[in-house]
Each structure stands twice: as C-alpha cells, then as structure tokens.
Amino acid sequence: MAEGKIKNWFVRFTAYNTAHVVHQQEQVNSCGIACILMINLKMKKGLMAAGMAATAAVSVVPIIGGFLGVDLGTKVLDYAVKTEPQVYKIYGDVVGTVYDGTSYTNASNHPAVLEKLGCGQWEAFWAGGAGVSAAIKDAVAAGAPCIVHVTWKAGGAHFVVVDEVVNIGGLDWAMVNDPADGDIHVTLLSPGSAPSYDAGAGNFSGWIVRRK
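The chain above was modelled as a monomer; its predicted structure follows.
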C-alpha cells in the first residue's frame, strides 16, 4: 500500500531555497486531480509530520509498540496521501458521473472535492488576467496553496499548483508545481497582467481555486 501511495510523487528543490513535493499526473487530462492531490498533501503535511514522529516514538516500544507504530503510520499516510483513482471516485460522486482522468475536470467542482477530502472550505475565484498575480500572492500569504488555471496558446488548458511566492529584487516569483512533468516552474507574477507560463506557451487565465 505504501508503494502505491507514493507513486508519481517527487521532492523538488529550487535555487530560491524552497522545497516542494510534486505529483506527476497519471492520465493525459488528470492535471486537475493531481493538483487536488497536491493541495490535500500540502494542507495536511504538518499533521502528517507529527503523526510520523509519533509513529517513530511508539515503534521503539517492544512488540506491541511496533504493531501500534505501523498502524498509526498507515493511518497518517492514508489521511494525508491519496491516489488518483481514489480522487477520481470522489470527483465522479461530485459531478454525478464516472470519471477516469481522460477528460478535463472543471475548476468549479474542485472546492467540493477538497471539502470531501477534509481540507476545509474552498472556492473557484475569477481574478481576471489583471488581478490573478495579486490573487495568487494573497492566497499563498493567507497560508494555503492554490490551484491556478492555465490556457495554452495552441489550444487547451491545464491546472497547476502554487504553494509559495518568493520576492527577489522587488519582483514576485511563483513556485509552480506542474503535474505535467512533476517539476517546479519558477514563474514571474507580472503585476497588472496575466503571467506568461512555460516559456510563453500559455498564460494564467485568471481563474484560481483558493481556500476561503
């Protein structure tokens, strides 16, 4: 079970002294689901760390403590780390149809899925191209990552997660967790205009999913 839980998860470091855990999407259009997985983990990582520490402490007790430690560790992992198929099912329940990752998700449904995962209250928010940089910065400053919608110039769309914003020389840079390649794309949050993404291949559309 542990092996399945950590499938497609990567730890990434940046030149800005930041560290991130990124999930690479498992289906061609499961970027939204992958972003929900990342939000779920990032929102619960503090509890997971505390739980794992408790697991280690309990496990040093002979025999019975060992079994309790394994059981506690499993419960902590199950709570904080979900698999794509698990969230496909939750998304399908929200929209009332079977979902398998081969079609796009709708950002308006992401808040309900996050709530069912125990992540609290969320909302799909239209900031517009001129306001999306500020909206992302404000969402992260409030203590939670956000999902950002990207539109491609060649057509189509994508979802990514921003979990940190770093200011260097007066400029704000978003640490973009991209499920397409499981990597971090450091992206300038241009004030007053929609940020260009992935070497100009797309732009932030103006939609984000943020915690209320």
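The two ends are 33 Å apart (CA to CA).
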